[in-house]
# Entry
Amino acid sequence: MHADEELASIPVPRSLDERRAYAQDRLETGFQMWLATGSDGHGAHLIPVACVWDGSALYTATFAKSRTVANVKGHPQARVALGDTADVVMIDTGASLMNVPDIDADIAERYAEVSTDPRTHPKGMFVYLRLHPRRILVWNGLHEFAGRTVMQNGRWLDDPVD
# Structure
């Protein structure tokens, strides 16, 4: 392969606007994610969960006595991944717990459409997690590693920072 052919085969990175739009679309249309939490004594913990997006936060539910909930109580933050390793949206979030009766009815209904409905189980069995994005990264290969940050400090970016 000649140098010109090699350069022509490298994909052109998406613009910040394209990546931001991609992240927003994934949040609005997706309903599955990987959720990672951590603790001082037990290390990282990763689970696959369903989710819904309300335009500013992701919501999911899990067992009230789970390691995920214990981790969030000790360290109210999480990392979320949407997509696969070839095309990822990575989200660093603040995390808070919500009792089932306290969740917005619209969020509860939308969540019940994509997963088990916590409202139909005994009281105290499940809790909701509210995940508020602080930083969002989007890339689909090494060619997009630069410029991958589309949100920083909870605000969508208009100009690249990396």
